[in-house]
Amino acid sequence: MRVMLEELWRSRALVAALIRRHIATRYRGSFFGFLWSFLNPLCLMGVYTLVFSHYMRVSGGPHYHLMVFAGLLPWIWTTSALTEGTSSLVSSGHLITKSMFPAHVLPFVTVCASMVHFVLALPVLCVFMIASGAPITATWLLLPLLVFLHGVFLAGCVLGLSALNVFYRDVQHLLGNFLTLIFFLCPVVYPRSNIPERARFWFDLNPFALLTEMYQMILLEGIVPSTGQLLYIAGVSCAALAIGVAVHQGCREQFAEAL
Q1: Once rounded to an integer, what is the mean pLDDT over residues 173-185?
Q2: How far lies 164's CA from each of 72, 94, 95, 117, 160, in Å?
Q3: Is this model's pTM higher than 0.85 or not?
Q4: Which residues contact 50 (CB under 8 A, 6 or more apart)?
Q5: Is residue 135 predicted with pLDDT exceeding 80?
Q6: Sign (positive/negative) of CA torsion 88, 92, 96, 101?
Q7: pLDDT of amino acid 66
């Protein structure tokens, strides 16, 4: 892990350039361009609010749309980073096979680029909160810590999955179905209070669900996550990074041949 972090630091100029290119090319050719960073979560919020609040009558409090929006922003970061990151080595195989390119840079770039879209969408949430009369509390100061832990967790997942996907292309297809399942196991379109008591133990063990809930606590409810929750997420994030680095480093010598 230390060696990989040192290589990332030495390649920081390359990482920054790739992040800028990734952001610039994501919506190239579209009419609204970069505005889709804001329009995507807004459209999803509208759809889920309509379906789950009006048709299925999910009880989410007076600011249900804010709960959905605050849950969607980190979820979009998660799905975007995992989906694009898992296929990053395969889609950029020409870089790995034709030069001494540091392969681990590509998964990190997808995580960081998706994080930029997440951060830029936060002001939209602020506008909705002000318009809805919801207070912006001092717990927002904890957001950088949560974003850091979230980023470490995603980086670990993407490093491992992208390495496995080089040899087993089924990984990227299985991931899509897995994310669909995980979405409905996260409190994005329903509050924690709707979860049966017998299932809450498993809910608390799900890092994706716990991260979503912690974002909603910090951004909307003005509640500081418990020490236990923070330590658990920190431990899971470090474990994910350690496993991801180990898998990636163990496979990297065969990348060029497999690609």
Answers
A1: 91
A2: 28, 18, 18, 26, 6
A3: yes
A4: none
A5: yes
A6: negative
A7: 84
